[in-house]
Amino acid sequence: MYVGIDVGTSMVKAAAFDGTGRERAVAARPVGLALHGGVVEQDMEKVYAAVVAVLEELTRRVPEPVELAGLTGQGDGVWLVDGEGRPVRPAASWMDGRAHELVGRWLADGTFETVFRRTGSAMFPGCPGPLLAWLDRHEPKALDTAEAALYCKDMVFRRLTGAPATTDVSDASMPFLDPRTRTYDNRVVELLGLTHRRRLLAPVSDPVATAETRGEGLPAGTRIANGPYDLPACALGAGVTAPGDGLLIVGTCLASLVATTELDLSGEPAGLYISTDRPGHWLRAMPAMVGTAALDWVLSTTGVPHAEVDGLLADTPPGAHGVRVLPYFAPSGERAPFVEPRLRAELTGVSLESSKGDLVRATCEGIGYAARHCLDAAGLTGSLAVCGGGTRSAAWMRLLADVLGRPLRVVEGEVGARGAVLAAAERYGIPLDAKAWTEPTAVVEPDPGRAAYYAKGYREHLTRLDQARARARA
């Protein structure tokens, strides 16, 4: 049995696979977010307890010996730990918005662009640079106490194994890693005013770190590898490794990734280049802030259960009777394919005649337009795979194929966990058939007529977005 662990933003999952890549079982536990005034935090002890619980459940349900485990999880944020790997304070989530004024200041004075030109990272309020700078100003004692500012999976790896604090090149890519040398750029640390906190940046393990577990969740002595984080892990799990091929992750974060061997740090600073386990190969990433979270908010507000989404999409025509949604609901604004910390969602074209179906369809269309914008900016030229919770809606997948105007290779199941296992197997020299492990479960073709309709709608979306960005800056 091979076990993949995916420590997500709202759900912790562990999946068991056999040697052919067949998913045997999945265990999951929800984890909460504390939101107040733009601050978004997580209780690290509860996150770790959820990891242990899902692993215990999984190993009870699939009793075969665990050959190998791979770990992945949400990226960005700041997970401060002491010398024992215990939390110093709650983790600041990647969704956190408290550092938006710092990002705004760096946008205005050129620091933001300089960092992008050096590292390929377009900072946003919830990434480690701004968050550490904010904590240095407002909670310096927490930084004084901490041994390391980790990423989510690194904290879990530290606790499961007792190994020293480390991270990997994928997590370190935002915002301090030089993608050419695969080491921290100390000039960037200096530009963000964090030279005196440089010790908090965990050593980068290249290739990913390995260790044996201590007996919590998994049997003691189980081999485990740490990384990459969830976006590149999903790319591995979906078979997206050839230059030009892309992946759209329809999850809490709407992430668009395109594999590339070219490092282009020109153009509008946005997204990031994620370093992979292969030097000279990157993922051009445009991780938009809100994906399924936008639809969840609309469903909660309108009282529509998830089970009714497919029916509402089927009963509502393209264009949603004139209702339009700019789906930028995150409290920290947007980070891809542009950075606007003050951008907020907009709902237009609503009247007393608008239905719940109109609101749901307009939201799904808006998310689709945002995805197209990100994929265009990331340089998609090859095939496109899709994974994430949104793939459970067949109607939404058909809508996305139409909005994007291209076939979708739908990869279902625990794709991030699958990629974590493949990365671990590569690290340990275990020969798994990656092609067999990453076969799509379906291919969804676009309807030519609807695709043409949405091509016009996409141009209109970009115009509305330009106007909204101008208002956000006013």
UniProtKB/TrEMBL annotation:
<keyword id="KW-0808">Transferase</keyword>
<dbReference type="InterPro" id="IPR043129">
    <property type="entry name" value="ATPase_NBD"/>
</dbReference>
<keyword id="KW-0418">Kinase</keyword>
<feature type="domain" description="Carbohydrate kinase FGGY N-terminal">
    <location>
        <begin position="1"/>
        <end position="204"/>
    </location>
</feature>
<dbReference type="InterPro" id="IPR050406">
    <property type="entry name" value="FGGY_Carb_Kinase"/>
</dbReference>
<dbReference type="GO" id="GO:0016301">
    <property type="term" value="F:kinase activity"/>
</dbReference>
<feature type="domain" description="Carbohydrate kinase FGGY C-terminal">
    <location>
        <begin position="270"/>
        <end position="425"/>
    </location>
</feature>
<dbReference type="InterPro" id="IPR018485">
    <property type="entry name" value="FGGY_C"/>
</dbReference>
<comment type="similarity">
    <text>Belongs to the FGGY kinase family.</text>
</comment>
<protein>
    <submittedName>
        <fullName>FGGY family carbohydrate kinase</fullName>
    </submittedName>
</protein>
<dbReference type="Pfam" id="PF00370">
    <property type="entry name" value="FGGY_N"/>
</dbReference>
<dbReference type="InterPro" id="IPR018484">
    <property type="entry name" value="FGGY_N"/>
</dbReference>
<dbReference type="Pfam" id="PF02782">
    <property type="entry name" value="FGGY_C"/>
</dbReference>
<dbReference type="InterPro" id="IPR000577">
    <property type="entry name" value="Carb_kinase_FGGY"/>
</dbReference>
